[in-house]
User: Fold this.
Amino acid sequence: MPPKKIEKFSPLTESTFYILISLYEPAHGYGIMQKVERMSNGRVVLGPGTMYGALSNLQKNMLIASLESKPGDRKKMYEITEFGKELVEYEVKRLKEIIKNAEKITDGSDDI
Amino acid sequence: MKEDRKTVHRLFFAWDGIKEKNWLEKMALEGWEIETLELFTYTFVKREPGEIHYDFDFNVISGTKFEEYKLLFEEMGWKYINSIGSWHYFKSYPESNCSRELFNDSKSRNSKYKRVLVSVLLSICLMIPLQILLPFLSEKPAASTWVIFFIAFFMTIFLIYGVVRMILLLKKSGNPI
Assistant:
């Protein structure tokens, strides 16, 4: 199955975006949760229901992949794919544009 | 001697999830912790009064997938209690250092309501042909056939009511703007 167009997944929700960028290094559910909590200074605490849905969707769309788990370890590890990284880059570009414009307007230097 | 276990019969519908959650959390504050849940039947054990968080998910899932699902929830601080059909019940303690609810954003919470909605709609689709076919199954419908017909009819009306309540819940929960 060829991957869908990257724009189809945009905009990501905050939770999904954070999960996706946590997976530049392999991690399992609890690891992702801790990382996201740290990055957001405790603002985003992922719930397992949200996490399960996001991981299933991301994996289904080949934006992340699950890794072979070590023997004896039942926890599933995930990692971002090249396609997933493409999506992150697309989103960063899009969000930068929004921030740039919002700052222009709120700073009063609006020349649009 | 005071009983250390009690059984309470109560009925909550899918759209009354918040009521059910609040009731269970109030029971915990009064010193009763859920041991098992069955349809209409809640069994509590006596414990130190204190805060317990309850939440439930709806997911049609089985086998290895279900094992992985439970493992992820436990890993993230939510203890699995048991399931009633596709409703899975979880609890967590304030010291578990986890999310306050199973869903931390409205989009994923809404996707749970949508899963419920789909399965209710599916039940309606199964009920309607039953009602249409039943009177034709026997040449002279017996009284029992009509009883089943009316039960199916009222079930359908009730399920349609359920659909409306679930849609209202979805609307109330708020969509990401």
The CA atoms of residues 67 and 77 of chain A lie 5 Å apart.
